[in-house]
């Protein structure tokens, strides 16, 4: 395994940046465009918009749940750079449809096309980028590079926000912020700027030092704990300033996925990194299938007048419980030596024998 430096991965980091930049740049008006296309009049809380988001997440999740392990396996066989061509090409058409016109018919054309392509492409760039780093970077530097990848993606969100000035927060509970506090595009832009700026700084500079100090497992547990605190605060938001205040938790909550990728990558050799990272993305996609079945109807119910009791953020409270379960499970993770370490231990044992 080669000892890669940051500069030697500039081609990969450029790909991740441009992919993230284009993705974030497409999102600026999606909340309002969806509401305008499917909701009648000035109604900003119609259930159809919430359910369409849920259907998209379930369908795309089912597709990526199957495709991510396949793509990861193919990348081990045919090369990571070759497989990166697929998502970069297919992701062009859907935003081009929406750029042409934004009425209801064109919105549904965009909606269907995006679902079909995202079933193959969503998360592919991140998955293959993690596999490339895991294959070419060894030791403690690997988790640092995972943090750099996440930081570069966050920076792409910052740049896209400054370019568009209208970027909604990347969260399945955004129609929540709009319905609960009347968030408009400028509010979303301010919030995502805070999140991405703080997140990029923490992933680039804080994560490597924290991993060296307390280890990947403790970083993962801390991130999950802070994520649950964040969701709990949002669930009981009593004013529009609360989502802004919770951004102080962002530096820790963004450590979760780099830690997961780092822990998993150490358990296999360089020739299986695509498969492992693909499986992680597949599991993540599976959660994207299950969550909308539970949270989309729950969110729509408690934001409507038919709620059994007044608690607009009840679905976020349920998310808090899910994150707490993940936190307690993370405490059970044990350190397992990597294959290279096992090989070294076996060689020492033979020499002593």
From TrEMBL:
<keyword id="KW-0472">Membrane</keyword>
<keyword id="KW-1133">Transmembrane helix</keyword>
<feature type="transmembrane region" description="Helical">
    <location>
        <begin position="188"/>
        <end position="207"/>
    </location>
</feature>
<dbReference type="InterPro" id="IPR036259">
    <property type="entry name" value="MFS_trans_sf"/>
</dbReference>
<dbReference type="GO" id="GO:0009793">
    <property type="term" value="P:embryo development ending in seed dormancy"/>
</dbReference>
<dbReference type="GO" id="GO:0016020">
    <property type="term" value="C:membrane"/>
</dbReference>
<feature type="transmembrane region" description="Helical">
    <location>
        <begin position="309"/>
        <end position="333"/>
    </location>
</feature>
<protein>
    <submittedName>
        <fullName>Major facilitator superfamily protein</fullName>
    </submittedName>
</protein>
<feature type="transmembrane region" description="Helical">
    <location>
        <begin position="244"/>
        <end position="264"/>
    </location>
</feature>
<feature type="transmembrane region" description="Helical">
    <location>
        <begin position="106"/>
        <end position="134"/>
    </location>
</feature>
<feature type="transmembrane region" description="Helical">
    <location>
        <begin position="155"/>
        <end position="176"/>
    </location>
</feature>
<feature type="transmembrane region" description="Helical">
    <location>
        <begin position="83"/>
        <end position="100"/>
    </location>
</feature>
<keyword id="KW-0812">Transmembrane</keyword>
<keyword id="KW-0813">Transport</keyword>
């Amino acid at each position: 395994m080669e000892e890669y430096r940051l500069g030697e991965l500039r081609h990969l980091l450029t790909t991740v940046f441009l992919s993230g930049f284009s993705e974030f740049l497409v999102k600026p008006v999606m909340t309002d465009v969806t509401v305008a296309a499917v909701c009648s009049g000035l109604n900003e809380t119609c259930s159809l918009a919430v359910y369409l988001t849920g259907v998209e997440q379930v369908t795309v999740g089912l597709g990526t749940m199957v495709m991510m392990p396949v793509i990861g396996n193919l990348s081990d066989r045919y090369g990571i750079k070759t497989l990166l061509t697929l998502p970069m090409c297919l992701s062009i058409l859907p935003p081009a449809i929406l750029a042409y016109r934004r009425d209801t018919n064109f919105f549904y054309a965009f909606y269907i096309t995006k679902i079909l392509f995202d079933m193959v492409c969503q998360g592919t760039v991140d998955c293959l980028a993690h596999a490339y780093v895991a294959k070419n970077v060894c030791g403690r530097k690997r988790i640092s590079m995972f943090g750099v990848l996440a930081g570069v993606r966050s920076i792409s969100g910052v740049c896209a926000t400054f370019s568009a000035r209208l970027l909604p927060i990347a969260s399945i509970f955004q129609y929540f912020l709009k319905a609960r506090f009347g968030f408009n595009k400028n509010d979303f832009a301010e919030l995502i700027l805070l999140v991405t700026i703080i997140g990029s700084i923490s992933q680039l500079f804080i994560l490597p030092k924290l991993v060296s100090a307390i280890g990947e497992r403790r970083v993962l547990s801390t991130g999950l704990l802070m994520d649950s605190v964040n969701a709990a605060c949002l669930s009981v938001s009593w004013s529009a300033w609360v989502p802004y205040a919770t951004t102080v938790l962002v530096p820790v909550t963004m450590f979760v996925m780099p830690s997961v990728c780092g822990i998993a990558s150490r358990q296999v050799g360089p020739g299986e990194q695509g498969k492992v990272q693909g499986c992680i993305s597949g599991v993540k996609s599976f959660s994207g299938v299950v969550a909308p079945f539970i949270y989309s109807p729950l969110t729509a119910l408690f934001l409507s007048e038919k709620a059994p009791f007044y608690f607009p953020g009840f679905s976020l409270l349920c998310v808090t419980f899910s994150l707490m379960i993940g936190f307690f499970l993370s405490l059970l993770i044990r350190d397992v030596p990597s294959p290279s370490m096992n090989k070294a231990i076996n060689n020492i044992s033979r020499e002593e024998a």
